[in-house]
Amino acid sequence: MPTYQSPASREPGPGQRESGGGETTGAVPNAAGAAGAEPDAAAAGALRGGPGPLVGVGWLAERIGMPGLVVFDASVGADRGAARRIPGARPFDLDGALSDHDAPAPHTMPGAAEFTEAVRALGVDDSDTVVVYDGAGLYSSARAWWMLRAMGFDRAAVLDGGLPAWTAAGLPVEAVGPEYGGPRGSFTARPRAGLLVDADTVARALADPAAAVLDARTRERFAGTAPEPRPGLRGGHMPGAVNLPFADLQGPGGLMRPAGELRAAFEALTGDRERLYFSCGSGVTACVLALGADLAGYREIAVYDGSWSEWGLPSPLRPVTTDLRTTGG
């Protein structure tokens, strides 16, 4: 599998662990554009340099409204189309144009041409910096980040703690208005092989002693003791996979755990294996594991796009077990 090299900067943005306060409305303090202020020179330089894979609410608050910064709301489920958003956020609709609805599994990655069109329609240029959040905290935003990386765009980051962390810090929200109607962007997808993989690749990884397949679903779904939320899927897990529920990578306030703790969580299940593949229900929370692995310093990582929505189907028949003794940990 081709090696995934993330951007050089891995340092958290200023204020990454900030919290406190309640929901407010109004201007973001010191935010260029949002309050009519000129962008701070140091902030502008940091924006040009790219944000790294994860930024805190302080980092975003200092830069929101700056030219060249695009904020996406990638919420799904009950949080999709919520009444409030971070000021100026545009919808990265994983249940809409940003998935291939002709594919048998939900949330399947669109083709390069379709992805290019959808992202251009949201006004993104190749030179822009993108920050993605979701209303659940840190759930579906990582999927948008990984999709952009898979399409060759490295200037993207996930907002640590998402909208809950933003409002807890006393930062402003606004009512959701009409869909984005601004200028089209110049974004062009440049797909990278190996970041999103298929079932056959995962089957080979399960048989490879140098690789590990990690499942981000809950322990109950992994064990087959809780029903799958999508009808028609078998319960259980892939023989040889290990279970790392995505929420285990998050600490207080829904923030990602420090890099050392993330590394320890992975090594407890995978030992010294460095080639990691991630699965979940439909390829969404598997990307939270990909984000955690990236922050922990892993370089050979991939997401199974079809995930359990494909593997768990009764046809074609893929091996499934509920025996926890068959896991590879």
| Radius of gyration, whole Å | 19 Å
Measure the end-to-end span: 21 Å
Number of strands: 12
Strand content: 5-15%
Determine the fraction of residues in helical runs and give it as a percent range: 25-40%
The best one-word shape is globular
Q: Helical stretch count?
A: 10
Q: What is the residue-mean pLDDT, rounded to a whole number?
A: 87
Report the structural category. Answer: alpha/beta
Q: Report the major sheet.
A: 5 strands, parallel
Order of strands, main sheet, comes to 1-6-5-2-4
Low-confidence stretches: 1-44
Compressed to H and E, one letter per element, the order equals: HEHEEEHEHEHEEHEHEHEHEH
Describe this protein's structure:
The protein has 329 residues and is of the alpha/beta class. The chain has ten helices and twelve strands. The strands form three sheets. It has a five-stranded parallel β-sheet with strand order 1-6-5-2-4. The chain is globular, with a radius of gyration of 19 Å. The model is unreliable at 1-44 (pLDDT under 50).
Topology of this protein?
Layout: H1 41-49, E1 54-55, H2 57-63, E2 69-73, E3 84-85, E4 90-91, H3 112-121, E5 129-133, H4 141-150, E6 156-159, H5 162-168, E7 174-175, E8 196-197, H6 199-206, E9 211-215, H7 219-223, E10 242-243, H8 259-270, E11 275-279, H9 286-295, E12 300-304, H10 307-311
Parallel strand pairs: 1-6, 2-4, 2-5, 5-6, 8-12, 9-10, 9-11, 11-12
Antiparallel strand pairs: 3-7
